[in-house]
Amino acid sequence: MGGVTTGAWIAIAAALAVLLVVLVVGSLLYRRRRISLKAPDTPQVTTAEKDRSGSYRADGGFNFSQGSTATAPPREVVPEPVLPEPVPEPTITPEPEVVAPPEPEKAPAPEKAPEKEPQKPTAPPEPVTYEPVVSPEVEPEPEVAPTPEPEPAPAAPALDVIAPTEGRLDRLRGRLSRSQSAVGKSLLGLLGGGDLDEDSWEEVEDTLLIADLGSATTTKIVTSLREQMASRSVRTEADARALLREVLVSELRPELDRSIRALPHDDHPAVLLVVGVNGTGKTTTTGKLARVLVADGRRVLLGAADTFRAAAADQLQTWAERVGAEVVRGKEAADPAAVAFDAVAKGIDNGVDVVLIDTAGRLHTKTGLMDELGKVKRVIEKKASVDDVLLVLDATIGQNGLAQARVFAEVVDITGVVLTKLDGTAKGGIVFQVQHELGVPVKLVGLGEGADDLAPFEPGAFVDALLG
Ligand SMILES: Nc1nc2c(ncn2[C@@H]2O[C@H](COP(=O)(O)OP(=O)(O)OP(=O)(O)O)[C@@H](O)[C@H]2O)c(=O)[nH]1
User: ipTM of this complex > 0.90?
Assistant: First the structure.
């Protein structure tokens, strides 16, 4: 009996040992699985946070750069008053009102639109901090007491989906079809036949002039084409296309810097002034540009310094609300310089990346314009340097547009041109003339009334669109 009992005990001990081993191994495996499940949750740094310095190129065309630091603003020495509404200059009577954005939780932007600010509390004027806040997707720890309901966000209007910023000029090339028939098809038809007689050369010249290339550019292009045709054999339409492309692209000076100087500086936002005669598409262009910047993860503030027409500020506010940008606007007929000043000040306080100022362009008298624009620029520069001055020109008004451009160029240092309404004209050649006359690159082109019908200007893609 005693022997049997010992055997039984040994068997029981062995069984217990096996059970223990199974429990230990099982527990280890279970813990390993838990750890591996949690692992992917950890990284939480958004690309937007990493993307705050250095120059970058938005995918496929819109090219942004930082304005020269050589013209860095004289930092204001006046201590910041604690008063709610700082008055920039005694002569100015501003009362600008800041319209808070409908909470920029970024549009479900295409591709890489980063969420720069996850959720802002309702208290408005707090500057945004970029601390890696635990996002709502992170698994809550079971032991932690349930946190109070996140306060319901104010009913924000739905934000727009912004069309991809890449390949815009290619996608919108069909909009140049009127110029394509007038310039591209005619020229290819004439040159494709090989040797040209004098009448045909005259026709080439007329085609270029009618398409608004201007006499100086036309003469240069015709001379260059004649030389090239004489020195190399052009027999087919393909040969003619290659030659034309080469000559036209080179005339558009592809080496010019067409980047939009919209990258922020270390301690203040980039500031862009949008100028031009009313009706050319200034406000629309400012709104379209804001969308491009928002799509690329920038925080944008729009300043409605076109206080001449009340509807212009409403229009700009609507553009801003559609993409969650901030707006600073003044009362009707407020001093544009005061509104511009306040917009830049607010942009600095709120830590935005770019401030875009839409100005009024009443071309009543040159002195009036000079006074107004000069003052806007001067007053802004008490706070920050102006990085880019974009002149908006309506491509459909040809020579009149050039006359306007000359006046603006005398009044303010233009650093880039936006040619709007190129979709509505057969005279796409105005691009050549504007650059030639002003010596300033065309940086952007407007190709329709749609919110995303703005494209970066690229000489090669533009000429390809003209030649079809
Ligand atoms: N077809 C076409 N229309 C455009 C383009 N850009 C602007 N527009 C239209 O031009 C008109 C005038 O545009 P606005 O942006 O109001 O012009 P503005 O220069 O700001 O003029 P004010 O608002 O009076 O200061 C609007 O109907 C726009 O939709 C473009 O590239 N193509």
Answer: yes
Please check if 438 is assigned to a binding site. Answer: no
Name, in order, each residue with C-beta under 8 angstroms of 243's C-beta and a sequence gap of 6 or more: 191, 225, 228, 229, 232, 234
- Provide φ and ψ at 384, rounded to 5°: -160, 155
Within 10 angstroms of residue 163's Cβ, the number of other Cβ atoms is 19
| C-alpha closest to that of 267 among 47, 52, 98, 49 | 52
Given this structure, which CATH class describes domain 174-251?
mainly alpha
Using DSSP's 3-state secondary structure scheme, residue 439 falls into coil
Plot region of 199 (φ>0 → left; ψ -120 to 50 → alpha; else → beta): alpha
Ligand 1 binding pocket includes 362 (Cβ within 6 Å): no
The pTM for the full model equals 0.72
Give the ligand 1 atom nearest the CA of 448: 32
| Ligand 1: centre distance to CA 179 (Å) | 20
What SS3 state is found at 54? coil
Q: Do domains 174-251 and 260-460 have the same CATH topology?
A: no
Residue from 292, 419, 442, 449 to probe ligand 1 pocket by mutation (most atoms less than 8 Å from CB): 449
Which CATH number applies to 260-460? 3.40.50.300
Domain-by-domain residue ranges, the chain?
Answer: 174-251, 260-460
> Closest ligand 1 atom to the C-alpha of 453?
31
Cα torsion 113, 257, 252, 454: sign: positive
Residue 185: CA count within 13 A, CB half-sphere = 8
Backbone region of residue 36 per phi and psi (left: phi > 0; alpha: psi in -120 to 50; beta: other values):
alpha
CB atoms within 10 A of CB 32: 10
342 Cβ inside 6 Å of ligand 1: no
3-state secondary structure of 232: coil
Over the stretch 336-387, which tens digit does the pLDDT of each residue have?
999 999 999 999 999 999 999 999 877 656 677 777 888 999 999 999 999 9
Query: In which region does residue 276 sit, left (phi positive, over 0), alpha (psi from -120 to 50) or beta (all else)?
Result: left
Q: Residue 455: in which H helix or E strand, if any?
A: strand 454-456
Question: Is residue 444 in contact with ligand 1, taking CB distance under 6 Å?
Answer: no
